[in-house]
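At this stage, I needed to go through a protein sequence along with its fold in token form, as given directly below:
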Amino acid sequence: MPNETQGTALPGAGERLGRRITAGWDLLTGRPVSLYAASVLRIGYGLLYLVFLLREFPHRDEIWGPGSPWTPALARELFEQTGWVSVLALSDSRGYFELCYVLALVVSALFMLGWRTRVMSVLFAVVVTSFHARAIFMTDGGDNLLLLMALYLVLTACGRRWSLDARRLKAKPVPADSAPRPPGSPLTRQLRDGRSILVTALHNCGMFLIAAQVCLLYGSAGLYKVQGSTWGNGTALHYALNLELFRPWPVLSHFVDEHTLVIAIAGYLTVLLQVAFPFVLFGRLKYPVLILLLGMHIGIAVLMGLPLFSGAMIVADAVFLPDRFYTLLPRLGRRVMRRTAGSGPVPARAAGAGAVPAQGGPGGALGSKHPVVLPAERKDTHDRPETASPRLPAKGS
């Protein structure tokens, strides 16, 4: 009996394991997930890095060029120890650096617009890696996350929505004959199916890596804060607001620092949100948490002068919003525009409110210019409704 029971249980466990493996494989290769979120990441990081390069354009030589205190020779010496590479360190020529900077601007813009996204995603990753490695000690650290996201986006199909590539495919003319074309040889079909499965699997893995990276970042930051005494007694934000290096507006920082109870509550709420973030992703509680995190990052960008880091985190949080949220946004926009257009001034009524337009029939021709005036009401009705009654025939008729 025990042997029979074990023999029955083992096939059942094997079937359940097989179903789970099949379900996991279908989830990985069945269809690409979060295509709109991937497009938001592409647009967000492309725009963010383009603005970053334009903002630092007057200081480009001091940060990345041959005139930087961190010379190309020092950068190459560091590369031998860390294994980093950078196309900016291939030459010490000023003209070569200016050419690389212009190409970086062009690549960032084309990647944001989604033109030839497969190629541009690789070039964008090369640009971000090169600029990050060339001046690794001269930036504020906000480009660390952007570097990781640029590498992850290479794996994704981030150009299938809201891109020039998607618009070009939609505008492609349909062949005149609607007859089905021959599927081709079996080898061609297998290669096409294998390519589709590979692209889908890489995209899903890339989106999973992005989500896991954000969860790891929030969770580790929250756990590190828990270990610190300043976050435990609620004074961490007080010290952060008084750092000279991170006070772009000292008056505003001093004003916020005066509200000690508010900054203490904000510190405790920050730790709670970061620690709890990975555990609220599978419920509706993630939406208010994302809103609070958005406010936190805006506060960091304004009060501490770290717009690149805050922007990178805000864009990364968009990966947790479902595609139905992004498809709902255009509908809401169109609805708001219709309501705004319909809330204009009501046109005034034409003169002669007692006149009605001419009606077709014996009383007048249709389209006549003379209005038909309603007859005056009878005064002997005493507000009683008139009832139709048949007319009796006259006598002798």
User: Anything to note?
Assistant: The longest strand covers residues 355-356. Strands lie at 355-356, 372-373. Residues 350-356, 359-397 have pLDDT under 50 and may be disordered. The chain has 16 helices and two strands.
